[in-house]
From TrEMBL:
Protein name as it appears in the record: Protein GrpE
Cross-referenced PANTHER family: GRPE PROTEIN (PTHR21237), GRPE PROTEIN HOMOLOG, MITOCHONDRIAL (PTHR21237:SF23)
Signal peptide: none
Pfam families according to UniProt: GrpE
Organism: Mesonia maritima
Biased composition (Basic and acidic residues): 1-21, 32-55
Gene3D superfamilies: 3.90.20.20, Head domain of nucleotide exchange factor GrpE
UniProt keyword terms in alphabetical order: Chaperone, Cytoplasm, Stress response
This protein's record includes keyword Chaperone: yes
Subunit structure: Homodimer.
Amino acid sequence: MSKNKDTNHKENDKEALKDQVEQTIDDAIDEVESKEQQENDKGEKKEELSEVDQLKNEVEKEKDKFLRLFAEFENYKRRTSKERVELFKTAGQEVMQAMLPVLDDFDRALVEIEKSEDKELLKGVELINNKLRETLKSKGLTPMNVKEGDKFDADLHEAITQIPAPNKKLKGKIVDVVERGYTLGEKIIRYPKVVTGK
């Protein structure tokens, strides 16, 4: 019986050892599976994060495109409004330049009418001349104030000829104004034509 007890005891020890080994193996397998599961979860989170990052990047790209498009549109609006203003100015300038010969004719007519004895005719032409000049002045056209004895400036005057100066004071200065100059706003639309003394 004692043999039997020893054998049973040994078998029980073997069974216990076997159970313990199996338990250790099961624990190890569970631990490995748990680690794999955690790694898989992390991988899925990384994939989810990378998807979120991708979407954020796409949103940033679209936002950048939108901002560039908006900036281009603002530049386009600014450029077209500037062109429109310049178009109005140049359209006005062309009309004003077309009126300059009429003003010159009025000046010549007034000189000739003053020679006649018809004061009523002179008065009538002067009224029309003044009205025309005031209307053009209200639109920005002003005559350049150039007279005999002014210093010649090549940036402001157009010399058509040079004659010997009648006196020493007129040497290098304007001797005569052949045609008046005009400005439209700040811009000179016709330079005065002058004769200079040498």
